[in-house]
Amino acid sequence: MTSSIGIIGVGEIASACVDGLCARPDHPRFFLSPRTAERAARLAEAHDRVEVCASNQEVVESSEMIVLSVLPGQVGSVLADLDIPGDRTVVSAVAGVSTEALTPLLPHDPTLVRVIPLPAVRERRGVTAVFPAHPATEEIFDSLGGTVVAADEAQFSTLSAATATMSAHFAFLTGIADWLEAQGWSRADAEHFVRGEFGGLATALEDPNTSLSDLIPAHETPGGLNEMLRAEWMDEDNRARLARALDHVHERVTGSSTSG
User: Fold this and answer.
1) Looking at the domain that runs over 4-149, which CATH code has it been given?
2) Which residue numbers delimit the Pyrroline-5-carboxylate reductase dimerisation domain (predicted)?
């Protein structure tokens, strides 16, 4: 595994990656940028071989691989202040910023890889999208739950769009709790029940040999209540609305329409 990883932009996802990797006794050394000082200090205190650098350039000079995890609007100004040698690997976790846009900002032509880490990397259960194929990067994220490698950047962008569904999932659960509360349950009891119902379903997703579509009949009885709600709520119109919403997100990610 890569022996030293620098992180520029120690946000929530970058922190999750460090926490997940540091669960391994043989984890790499980490060099963290000084911005977001409180979070970086927490990581350095919590884990061995994790240091906070005085500057982003020090992160670059100390690291074999540099993970760029800043906001899209910050990329230009951050990279303009850095001199990244050609023998480094830059792993960009910046959403929506293409390889074509990043390459001119890296004049010494280091190896460039894009990734989409998910919050579950902290528990080493997050599947990370990677483009292009890069064995060292894949090894790191395989240890955090697995990887899928996109054939091209257009395919990679579809997974970026798919990540926009996470808060909608929690909005769905909130809607169920709202309905229970309207029926007279306390908010605490309603949320407690919903958390138990859906938290218990997580184990069903862990078997890769069972397709998602097969999980639908496995959790309903013909003519039963689950089938009734699914048929009424997730009908053809709502499935089409979901696809259109994903098209719109994908358009924002890529800057070009996919909906025709």
Assistant:
1) 3.40.50.720
2) 153-252
